[in-house]
Amino acid sequence: MKDLAILLLGMFLFVKGYPQSQNCDYYLNEVDKFDGNTKVITKEKGIGSGSIGAYKFSLYRTYSEKNKTDVKMLIVTFQSFSSNTTWCTKPKSNLIFLLNDDTKVTLICESKIDCNSKSLSLNYSLFNKDIEKLKKTPLKAFRISFSDGYDDCDVAEQYYDDENNLYSPTKYFIDNINCLFVK
């Protein structure tokens, strides 16, 4: 009976999807030889398109146990549909996620003022309270703020990555957030 309980617990932990069983696709996952900080960046994944452009997400983390620092961010890459329009963002603009259960999670932009006619790369702080919400519930949509307005984007149900693999952007955080915590 005790063996059956241990077996069931092991199966539960495997099915639950702890980071050890996670299939993570990294752009970078290393210890910096100069400062000793661990740096993790996941590869970009397309999330969907709004009315003014297409969006890709990647996750970033740098931490040092020695210095007790831990920074986690969402990197949003925006590619404009128009080459004639300049899009700007400013610090503290926000990104609001609408989850499938209709709750909202708001992230704050930490990037400097940036204007570019075709593309932007924006960094949003990820706090533990946000991570806990995002890793449990699929995404439905998001609103990204620019200096002159915002763009609403319904998150795609299915999307092909750069290697032509099919994945579900609605489960982006569910499938990828634990990649930041694998050592």
Shape: globular
Secondary-structure content class: mainly beta
Binned strand content: 35-45%
The number of distinct structural domains comes to: 1
Low-confidence stretches: 1-21
Q: Determine the fraction of residues in helical runs and give it as a percent range.
A: 10-25%
Query: Helix-strand pattern, N to C?
Result: HEEEEEEEEEEHEEEEH
Terminus-to-terminus distance: 34 Å
Q: Supply Rg.
A: 18 Å
Query: Average pLDDT across residues?
Result: 83
Number of strands: 14
Largest sheet: 6 strands, antiparallel
- Count of DSSP helices? 3
Give the oligomeric state: single chain
Structure, explained:
This protein is mainly β and 183 residues long. The protein has one domain. Helix content is 15%, strand content 45%. It is globular, with a radius of gyration of 18 Å. The N terminus is likely disordered.
